[in-house]
Structures are given as structure tokens and as C-alpha cells.
Amino acid sequence: MKRKTKKIIALSILAALLTLQFAPINSVAKSNKTSVYVLTKIATKNSKACSKFSYDKSGMIKSVKSYDWQNKLWRTMNYNYDKYSKLTSSTNSYAGSGKTTYKYDKKNRLIQDKLVWHSDDAKTTITYVNKYTYNKSNKISKIAVSYQYGKNKGNSTMTLSYNKSGYVKTITDTEGKEKFVNKLSYDKYNNLIKLDSYKIKNTYNSKKLLVKQNNEVLTYKKISVPKNLANKIKKQQWVYKNCYNNFPQQSPIDLANSNYILP
């Protein structure tokens, strides 16, 4: 056999071996990705008022910018994550500047978050600390809240119960002798449609994605994300669609603890 022919055969064998060696790696890399729908905009119908979303490379919410009816920016929320896409801090520019930091236990469960907010004139500082307790199902069962507003201090407790699908059913807020019970109701797509007497009207497109909520229109886009983060990203989307958008002051469900409250 001629040397040139031997060389060609050798190169062919080498190419085949390289193909066999690297093909599984490429296919694994491909299979590690999946597609999810994420919010790009929540807009108030017939108005310039809206919130716009941006994402990091992993598909986690990076920032949310909110504009008023005159299209002026009135709030920016930024979210910071570690290399494992775990939320470590967030900032809020509404009527001042606020920063929330998050602490986790050895099981990577959220055990505390702390918000320190300063007014624009630097005359007012509010501090909120939430401490979390978990049940046997590894879901948040209790949130102990302490706060300080100037010289005023206080504390309250939130207890949570869940329905058969694993979604929050009731939130009982106790402060001193006062007790408030919030009951949550869902539709068949697990979208929050009622909190006590506050109702939300939903309409869907053909893909069963929420496109209208009360007087607002929600816009989505499809992105490719790591499979191991897909469920976490979907929970972030649920929180913004169902909680922050409708009653941000009434629900303890946020981006940090959604992974432990939602199914």
C-alpha cells in the first residue's frame, strides 16, 4: 500500500474517532437546553405606562424598569445572582433607594432577607427583616417579620397553607391581637385569579399563555435556557405575572422565595 494511501486512511480513521469522541459532547450540550416563555413587557392598555424586562445569559430576570403614563421612568429593580443563579441581592429605586440581601442555609434554602430603604431626602430609613421556617415538605410554612421605621419598631408573623396542587392557599398575617387571612384562588392553568375580594380577569391566546390581565397586556418571548434552571425561571415568571403585578404589598411570594413556595 502506498504511503499516501496509508496517510489518507489514517486521517480518515482519526476523523472518525474525533467524530465519535465529540458527537456525544455536542448532543449533550444541545440536550441541556430547553425553551421557556418569558415576559418582555407588561403594559397598561391605552397608556404609555409599562414595565420592561431584561434577562441575564441564564434566563434569570436581571432588571425591571417601570414607566408611568407619561413614559417617565419611575422605578428600576435590579437582581444580582451568584454563579449558581441563586439570588444574592436586589435593589429598588422607588421613591428613594432600597437594597435587599438574602441569606441561605446549608440546604440552599432561603432563611432570611433584609431590606434597607432610604428616602430621597435621606430623612427616612425603613428596615424590614423576614425570617423563614419550613415544613416537612420543604415549603415555607412561616415568615417572621420585624421592621423599624425611624424610632418605631414592630413585628408580625405570616403563616402559609397550601392546596393539593402545591400552591399557596391561605396567608394568615398576625400582628399583636390583629389577624388577617388572605385566601388565594387559581384557574385551571394555576394563574392567580383572586385574593379575597380582589378579582383578576384573564384572557388567553391559542397557546394558553396569559396575554391580558385586568387592564394590562402581557408580552412574551421564547428563549433557550439551561434545563436545570427552567423550573426556577418559570417560577420567577409566575411571581411577576401573578403577584408583583397585582398586589405587590399583599403577597410574601417574591423571586427569592418562589422556589420554596411554588410547586
UniProtKB/TrEMBL annotation:
Annotated signal sequence is 1-29
Keyword entries, A-Z: Signal
Give the Gene3D superfamilies listed for this entry.
RHS repeat-associated core (2.180.10.10)
**This protein's name:** YD repeat-containing protein
Organism expressing this protein natively: Acetitomaculum ruminis DSM 5522
Lineage from the top down? Bacteria, Bacillati, Bacillota, Clostridia, Lachnospirales
